[in-house]
Predict the 3D structure of the following.
Amino acid sequence: MFRHLKEDIASVFHRDPAARNFVEVLTCYPGLHALLLHRIAHTFWNIGLKWLGRYLSTVTRWFTGIEIHPGAQIGHRFFIDHGMGVVIGETAIIGDDVTLYHGVTLGGTTWDKGKRHPTLNDGVVVGAGAKILGPFEVGKNARVGSNAVVTKAVPANATVVGIPGRIIERPSEAEQKLRRDLADKFDAYGMSSDLPDPVAKSLSAILDHMHAVDRKLHCMAAKMKELDASYVDENLPALNVADFEAAIDPATDKPV
């Protein structure tokens, strides 16, 4: 129990830059309180004291706003940030180093007994308000975006967003670098660079379309040159990252 407590407190310092000292974390973090009381309630549940485990989980919900069924299995270094409104069902299984933000639901989609809640493997991060519903697995180190609704398995290292949840396809390394260079002033306020804000998403879509048009024009020009040797193919100018940067007024440090 004390080893778990030490790991749980260390995980708060590791994942929350607002955590300042041991006393503050131990007394002011409802996610930590809910986890510590759940470990006790889970012990009661496993030794057959079902009512006592449920009662303790109910008391925990009153004080923290976090509802964890005593039957849920939770691994090491689990962290609930803010926590209000988190619901974790009876047959949910959570691996090590998992992070949940407020408003997350790990729920079921059936009234049948047996496994009906999701399994989150090691390193999963679930954004605020996301709903993961059903007896499937979310793969190791996967990311679930805020307010996403996930109802089917998620592979390892994937990022899922939207309603219903869809996996974001990762572009090539070259495309990622170009996107970062051109859209670095539109970084998302979120948990991952895989989740851009609407402006960055629009820029990425425009860039993808531009690249597709360039490839098509290059192919057409090559065919025209094959048909007519006198055809002169004019090279397109390269994109200049500086052209996409706003000018900054040094006096106000604001775009002009």
User: Anything to note?
Assistant: Confidence is low (pLDDT under 50) at residues 184-192. The longest helix spans residues 198-227. The chain has two domains: 2-167, 173-255.
